[in-house]
Amino acid sequence: MAQLWGGRFTKETEKNVYDFNASIRFDKRLFHQDIEGSIAHVAMLAKQGILTEDERKSITEGLEGIRQDVDGGKLEISEEYEDIHSFVEAVLTQRIGEAGKKLHTGRSRNDQVALDMRLYTRKRVMETEKLLIELLEVILVTMAQNVETYMPGFTHLQKAQPTTLAHHYGAYFEMFKRDQQRMRDIYVRMNYCPLGAGALAGTTYPLDREYTAELLGFQGPTLNSMDSVSDRDYLIEFMAALSTVMMHLSRFSEEIIIWNSNEYQFVEIDDAYSTGSSIMPQKKNPDIAELVRGKTGRVYGALMSLLTTMKGLPLAYNKDMQEDKEVAFDAMDTVTDCLTLFTGMLRTMKFKEQRMAESAMNGFTNATDAADYLVGKGVPFRDAHGIIGRLVLYCIEKNTAIDKLSLEELKGISDKFEEDIFDAVSLKTCVEKRLTTGAPGPEVMWVTIVRCVDYLNDLLDNFGLDKFKPEEYNIDESALARVRLADGK
Ligand code: ARG
Q1: 358-362: which pairs have CB atoms within 8 A and are 24 or more residues apart?
Q2: What integer best gives the mean pLDDT of the chain?
Q3: Ligand 1 center from residue 453 Cα (angstroms)
Q4: What is the DSSP letter of 413?
């Protein structure tokens, strides 16, 4: 048992009490943030004349040495200590003596842990944004390669109207784009430094909180010391955003599982991303998609857990808040793994274009277009709807499709049908005519794709990453150029 307090106690802590209270088992993950925060704190203390320059130097070198030794495997973070803060301070004092005991001047573990957790979360928010950008890029490549890959669009999981793979993937581009924007929002809102809040009411030392905030890359210091030590909103926001990422991944996974089923056979998941069965030799299972779908539950759980932990807590710090870490870390790790694996699975997944197009042709996905054809011949839409309904029934009885009927059969149902009906209800026409903004018609789809390319390039630029390179993929660059020309670029 190694703890930072004990002066006012007359009895030793019970061993099981100590263990129950200790957090080092999981907060050792904050080691780097703890060192970084302490180095900034000490730099500020010296600038303010609270520590001497010699003390600053000795403490800073001591902390850097500890960091080096832990990273290099020469020093193990011992779980003997109560928490990571106690470990660092104790080792520092063993190493540099008296000066080490001055590290905690004008600081409490309450603002220290608030800082560590914020620094750590800020890093994970940024990493998550980057993973989302990688996913967006993979989705965009598939979009740009499949503007004329036809497939059925569904409602109620029933074939509804024909669409394209580019259009279907485009829906996920929008979802993950919003997820990426949420990361950006959280980052901006959380980027204020709680260090210097002390235990709850600031300190009597003349700390320069603006300076520490600047050293640690924050926008500025937080403005209320009680809130600073007891705020975990940013974590809750992050958990909510991660839950939404998982909800999107889970929907996408579900579709891939369906598309990969024997009945659909729209896709083939790469061998590297599938697993077999121990008993059924023919099996190739979509386990990654299933696991991603399944892991959604634990991320939602983390959100619910944090909300419940924070509910009803009086100001300011309460030990309940130590419970923020395990669930939040687990959710962060889970989403990192899910995004990484899911992106890899998408990148290597193959589409069976022929199957998809055939599926779009069966199942009367052109029924709306057939009704629209009659509207074009002067039939009111409601009547056209009824006529095509009867036509569909006729086809079902004869086990055929609208575009397979003869003109005579069609005329038997309505004399408005002419030879041009066959072109009007062909799969190609049905898709090509859907030209409203956001629809699958190739002409507007390419406009959407160019908007997505521009959006992605801004993000990549922001992260100092290479721009999206259409020439590296099998993409119709002339289509992109046509849109740019029309844009006047
Ligand atoms: N391990 C604690 C936590 O994670 C650190 C803060 C402890 N502060 C205190 N006054 N006991 O919240």
Answers
A1: 359/151, 359/152, 359/159, 359/264, 359/266, 360/150, 360/151, 360/152, 360/159, 360/162, 360/163, 360/427, 361/401, 361/403, 361/427, 362/159, 362/401
A2: 96
A3: 46
A4: H
Candidates 32, 277, 305, 478; catalytic one: 277
Q: What is the pTM of this model?
A: 0.94
DSSP category for residue 446: H
Residues at CB less than 6 angstroms from ligand 1: 23, 27, 83, 109-110, 113, 317, 319, 321-322
d(CA 142, CA 478) in angstroms, rounded, equals: 17
pLDDT(279) > 80: no
**Residue 60 C-alpha to ligand 1 middle, in angstroms?**
23
Ligand 1 centroid distance, CA of 307 (Å) = 19
Q: How confident is the model at residue 274 (pLDDT cuts 50, 70, 90)?
A: confident
Dig out the tokens for 128 from the structure: 């998550």
Contact assessment for residue 342 and residue 253, using Cβ atoms and an 8 Å cutoff = yes
Most informative mutation of 108, 113, 226, 329 for ligand 1 (most atoms within 8 A of CB)? 113
The residue whose C-alpha atom lies closest to atom 11 belonging to ligand 1 is 319
Known active-site residue 167? no
220: β partners? 192
Q: What pLDDT, on a 0 to 100 scale, did the predictor assign at position 192? A: 98
**CA-317 nearest atom, ligand 1:** 10
Q: Is 41 exposed, middle or buried (0-12, 13-18, 19+ CB in 10 A)?
A: buried
Strands 192-193 and 220-221: parallel
- Tell me: the pLDDT tens digits for 436-479? 999 999 999 999 999 999 999 999 999 999 999 999 999 999 99
> Would strands 350-351 and 267-268 be described as parallel, antiparallel, or unpaired?
antiparallel
Q: By the 8 A CB rule, do 271 and 259 touch?
A: no
pLDDT digits (tens, 9 = 90+) for 254-271: 999 999 999 999 999 999
Annotated active-site residue 32? The verdict is no
- CB of 279 closer than 8 Å to CB of 369: no
Burial class for 426, CB neighbours closer than 10 Å (0-12, 13-18, 19+):
middle
Query: If DSSP codes are grouped into helix, strand and coil, which group holds residue 158?
Result: strand
Per-residue pLDDT tens digits for 142-185: 999 999 999 999 999 999 999 999 999 999 999 999 999 999 99
